[in-house]
Amino acid sequence: MRQDHLITATQLSRADIEAVLDRAAEIDADPAAMADRYREAVLALCFFEPSTRTKMSFETAIKRLGGATTDMGTVESSSVKKGESLADTVRVVEGYADALVLRHPSEGAAKMAAEFVDVPVINAGDGAGHHPSQTLLDLYTIRENVGLDDLSIGIMGDLKYGRTVHSLADALTNFDARQHFISPESLQLPRSVRFDLHNAGAQLREHTDLDDVLPELDVLYVTRIQRERFPDETEYEQIAGEYQIDADTLEAASDDLAVMHPLPRVDEIDPGVDALPQATYFEQAHNGVPVRMALLDFLLSEGEL
Ligand code: NCD
């Protein structure tokens, strides 16, 4: 199927995912081979919310492909501050670039933007919605460390507002993965995501206690409580501090467990875990570059995935 944009992970088949991951592995093995491939290409970065990893790894990715970026800058310094609509912003920016990476606080923003422009739009996070390019690097990291077959994964923390969770869970329905969701009751998966997962035949279980599943996990994917999405700060205060892991927690886990986190972490993973062989989150963040190079290669060369 032709895909001009990357908006959600549900649009990706297993074959699409494997094609991107295979390309990323080739690039990882020999990044220099791609150095001049997209010498004329410009990637627009439109980030209406904070970002470190996503923005910088897309930037490094296009530069390693020989291209350049044009960056909207912060909302404060752009015409958004003057009241420009998202539709107008993206229609203007498409004239400056060959593809557009968009992060926005509203769910559905990337889908809407894609209706207004012809260049590929990559959803780099739409509110509590989706973040599919993060999912591709998550899957790449899982495949490199423990494999994607017969996978037992625990996804823990803010399952309600965590967009990386929603996209990862969707994508994992393409594989033989047992998905264990671990969270306080108030932060369980949104109904719409659970509905999509059931429709896709997901092997899904929900827990409030990590101890119930930790020993059987191949991957523990920890997430930050998404403070900025809470309508009520007191609700956040009640939950913050729960669902943290440290070196003691991991005593009950397999030695081969991969502990992942999309980052940034606040206090969900104690820094004492960083030196353990199970800590995989910095490697995961670094994988953003080859995976986003591969994704851009597909979208820029063929205009499709
Ligand atoms: C995530 C995001 O923005 O959704 N960050 C990222 O892109 N790696 C996770 C988060 O902010 O907690």
From TrEMBL:
<feature type="domain" description="Aspartate/ornithine carbamoyltransferase Asp/Orn-binding">
    <location>
        <begin position="150"/>
        <end position="298"/>
    </location>
</feature>
<comment type="subunit">
    <text>Heterooligomer of catalytic and regulatory chains.</text>
</comment>
<dbReference type="InterPro" id="IPR002082">
    <property type="entry name" value="Asp_carbamoyltransf"/>
</dbReference>
<feature type="binding site">
    <location>
        <position position="264"/>
    </location>
    <ligand>
        <name>carbamoyl phosphate</name>
    </ligand>
</feature>
<dbReference type="InterPro" id="IPR006132">
    <property type="entry name" value="Asp/Orn_carbamoyltranf_P-bd"/>
</dbReference>
<feature type="binding site">
    <location>
        <position position="131"/>
    </location>
    <ligand>
        <name>carbamoyl phosphate</name>
    </ligand>
</feature>
<keyword id="KW-0665">Pyrimidine biosynthesis</keyword>
<comment type="pathway">
    <text>Pyrimidine metabolism; UMP biosynthesis via de novo pathway; (S)-dihydroorotate from bicarbonate: step 2/3.</text>
</comment>
<dbReference type="GO" id="GO:0044205">
    <property type="term" value="P:'de novo' UMP biosynthetic process"/>
</dbReference>
<dbReference type="GO" id="GO:0006520">
    <property type="term" value="P:amino acid metabolic process"/>
</dbReference>
<dbReference type="Pfam" id="PF02729">
    <property type="entry name" value="OTCace_N"/>
</dbReference>
<feature type="domain" description="Aspartate/ornithine carbamoyltransferase carbamoyl-P binding">
    <location>
        <begin position="5"/>
        <end position="144"/>
    </location>
</feature>
<keyword id="KW-0808">Transferase</keyword>
<feature type="binding site">
    <location>
        <position position="163"/>
    </location>
    <ligand>
        <name>L-aspartate</name>
    </ligand>
</feature>
<dbReference type="InterPro" id="IPR006130">
    <property type="entry name" value="Asp/Orn_carbamoylTrfase"/>
</dbReference>
<dbReference type="GO" id="GO:0004070">
    <property type="term" value="F:aspartate carbamoyltransferase activity"/>
</dbReference>
<feature type="binding site">
    <location>
        <position position="53"/>
    </location>
    <ligand>
        <name>carbamoyl phosphate</name>
    </ligand>
</feature>
<dbReference type="InterPro" id="IPR006131">
    <property type="entry name" value="Asp_carbamoyltransf_Asp/Orn-bd"/>
</dbReference>
<feature type="binding site">
    <location>
        <position position="103"/>
    </location>
    <ligand>
        <name>carbamoyl phosphate</name>
    </ligand>
</feature>
<protein>
    <recommendedName>
        <fullName>Aspartate carbamoyltransferase</fullName>
        <ecNumber>2.1.3.2</ecNumber>
    </recommendedName>
</protein>
<dbReference type="GO" id="GO:0016597">
    <property type="term" value="F:amino acid binding"/>
</dbReference>
<dbReference type="InterPro" id="IPR036901">
    <property type="entry name" value="Asp/Orn_carbamoylTrfase_sf"/>
</dbReference>
<feature type="binding site">
    <location>
        <position position="54"/>
    </location>
    <ligand>
        <name>carbamoyl phosphate</name>
    </ligand>
</feature>
<feature type="binding site">
    <location>
        <position position="263"/>
    </location>
    <ligand>
        <name>carbamoyl phosphate</name>
    </ligand>
</feature>
<feature type="binding site">
    <location>
        <position position="82"/>
    </location>
    <ligand>
        <name>L-aspartate</name>
    </ligand>
</feature>
<comment type="similarity">
    <text>Belongs to the aspartate/ornithine carbamoyltransferase superfamily. ATCase family.</text>
</comment>
<dbReference type="Pfam" id="PF00185">
    <property type="entry name" value="OTCace"/>
</dbReference>
<feature type="binding site">
    <location>
        <position position="134"/>
    </location>
    <ligand>
        <name>carbamoyl phosphate</name>
    </ligand>
</feature>
<comment type="function">
    <text>Catalyzes the condensation of carbamoyl phosphate and aspartate to form carbamoyl aspartate and inorganic phosphate, the committed step in the de novo pyrimidine nucleotide biosynthesis pathway.</text>
</comment>
<dbReference type="GO" id="GO:0006207">
    <property type="term" value="P:'de novo' pyrimidine nucleobase biosynthetic process"/>
</dbReference>
<feature type="binding site">
    <location>
        <position position="224"/>
    </location>
    <ligand>
        <name>L-aspartate</name>
    </ligand>
</feature>
